[in-house]
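Translate sequence into structure tokens.
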Amino acid sequence: MAWKVLATISLILLLVISTTLCVEEKKEKPELKGPWRDLTDLRVVLNSLSTLPLKYVPNTEGVKNIKDPYRTLYVLVGLDMRLSGEEVLALKEYYSSGGHIIIADDGNFTEDLVQIFGVKLWCKPYRPGWRYTDDWVKNLSFIKGVGEINGKNYTVLVHKPLGMNLTEEWKTVLALPHYATIELNGDNKESMGDAFFMVAPIAGEIVNENGGTFLFVSSSGLFTDNVFTMYDNKEFLEAYIKMVLPGGGIIYMDDTKQTKGISPHNVLLEVE
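Result follows.
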């Protein structure tokens, strides 16, 4: 009888210890909360490159109040709502004053901003032409692009990029390395009204006379954790930031235009 009591007590103690360990493990790995919980690696890199801790902003319009635009990078990634007129004007004022901007769009929500810059930039889904090439990774959502910064080439992986028709004021920073057609006339097929590229741009940069820079990326699927540490994605962003802020600076991350609480590019990708 005594051995049964001892066995019962031992079982209870084992259960208590197991439960305690599970609770402690959960405490050590808390669930990430809030917007951009799949952009953890991006935040880490931005913090590591900034001379001050990464800052967040209460609203996009507040960019016009930045004191030192020359040493400031404003990052607005993964828009899923349009910018207001006041926000567009604020971003233009900040850029005109020598500020640096990185915007990664999701669905052409920056059309008004592009227009006020006086640039004709088309941002509609590209068609990969008639061939499935080696540039595709896993499926037709992930594709490798080629970027160039200070004469060095980078291979980056992008999820669902959009094609762009850039005017001559813009410099192509990231492009698809094969034939592509940009759908421009709305008929959803290759026709005379479309733009045809041997190298299709998916990210471009424009620079003003005061040294302000604006890097526009056609998809936030360059920055999410699912691809951020693959190929040269991280190195590409680090190189670009060091180029526009060679002496260091302050980085602001604006997540106020992301309403879904998580990036729309929160998708899984198998490691090759």
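Note: The chain has a mean pLDDT of 77.
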